[in-house]
Amino acid sequence: MAFKELKYIVENLQDRANMLDFSIKKMNSVLFEVLKKNGIKFEEFKNNIQLKWEEFEKKNQNRVIKKTFTSFFYENFHDLFSYFLEEFFSFKKNSLNLFNKEKISEKITFFEYNYLLNPNEEEQFAKISDDFQVEILYGFSLITWYLYFLVRFLGIVIRKVIQKRIYILLDAVIVKNTDVNKNLNFMIIVKDSKDKTFNYYYNMVLYYFLRQIKGIPEDYFAKLLEGREKLYQIALKEYSSSKEKLVDLLYYFYKKCNLLQSFSPLLDFFNFVGARVEDSIFSKWDIIKKEFLINLDYSPEKKNSIIVFFDYLDKKSTLYSTFQANNLPSPKSQLNLFLLYMKYYFGSGLEALEVGDLLFLPKVFKDTLNQHNKDVEEVIGANSIKNVKEFLNFLSALSNIKNIDLFFQRIFNKNISQLNYGFFRTFLKSLGSNFSQIITQENKSLSEDPQNTPFTFNIVVDHICRILYVIIDKIFMRSSPDDASKNFIDPRSRYIGKNIALRVLELFVFQDINYSDDVWPDYIISLNREQLKGEMKKFNITIPEKKFYSVEELLQIMITYNIHSFSDQPFFEEWLIYEIIIPLNNLIQDVRNSVKDPENEIKVYEKLSEILLLDIEDEKIIKDFKFLCQNFAPFWKNLD
Q: Could you report the per-residue pLDDT of 322-333, keeping only the tens digit for each?
């Protein structure tokens, strides 16, 4: 593989990111510049796409049963993709293996690939990763990020050529270490774009977003409300066909989870469904037992194992979605998220972290901490964890300053959102490992009866997807949305017919926005920030940047569920020690060891100021950090 294209792209990306001049559109422009360097070849490539599409359309005119775009891509995508990678971006065509392709509906086709990196390619990617440090790539390997945007950009090129509302996306990728070298296992999905649905959804969430801002004329809000009503119309129109499409949706989740060998793509969808069951007149356990398990030719013990799996995922998806619901824009919102999960994990002391079920892998935590303590003079014990817990309580003072990120950079060497997305990624890795342990434990118990065949991960995913189908069918699917409202405790307000139709439509949004529905409004608004800012200029209104996700945060949201390079990610339990406990313990010990009398708040304040104010010249930041030092100083009085 020649790496001049990659080097050029990353250099430009780094320059623009460092100048705060980066957006997803600018990323596309950098890739387009690479194609323009191959001007004649690129024009030939587009002409080839156009000819193939015109031939397909011409044949389609004579067909009694018309084919959709998925048939075109089923036949042609691999040739286009392999040519695009090799001719413009120097991937080796012979290293690319298409091992499966499926057209699962008239609107979705997916392709599963392996790409085997040779030692030279691995070395070159590692070298470029070391040479260029781009903050927005934090937490992801360069190769997976690179592939993600190349596939996305190919989709843009094809969409413009054929003038069809489709998306082509790298929907899942995992890096596997083989005996020889790294193997990229990934899935590309070609699907309809749902542009109208998302435009109207944008209108709806924008209406509520802008209502808090004065100076916007009422006729602007009237147009947004029109969009909201059109969204309801789409939901009501598509309700009758939703049951059939639900099979395709859950099969999509099944394929994605199996490729990644992780339940993470299903977690927020799982919680979305579970929360609606809680609002219904039904018990989810009754539905599972009476309408799913009863149809399985399994022993009672094996059926109970399925309940164990479902219960585990039910609880963990609720926990994860609770954290995700607080993953909102602005450093203050990110601080609240940080304090939320810190309180959850540090609330019960060291013993709860080393034993019990607070952590996914308590043994990993205990072993990692023991190994760390072997290498240091001042070991981290129960009192250290108690001190960390108490100090975290003092961090609420950060909500009163503007420079939250700078504080986190000083203490943790990362800004607050980087730390939080590190939490999410490692949480998912440990959850996956823990769930594998549970499957193994259940199989061990079941093996006492030779008639019980063991569960594999794929079989468990299959059962969970089928259970979700049964639950959704039970609570949402009736002859009409109004009829389905009778299934809910509150049928006259939250669960009137049109709201049920919208909830059903939102089930399918998870295929495009594969994370908590609490994040959707800010995510969609942030994607459209430039357009929105332009519209607000007409009213002399400026919306603060803190109201939007940063580009880095948008990219983190986009790919956290889709890119699993877990081989180079720590477990959550390791992350908790190295990224949280050790930095905070070091700060606590540094101040304590430097001040003769920790009860002397003035001396503690001076030492904290020395640490936090180093090389800071901005008077406003100095004022903020002195405020923090004053608030933190009393902590050392009661230090254990």
A: 999 999 999 999
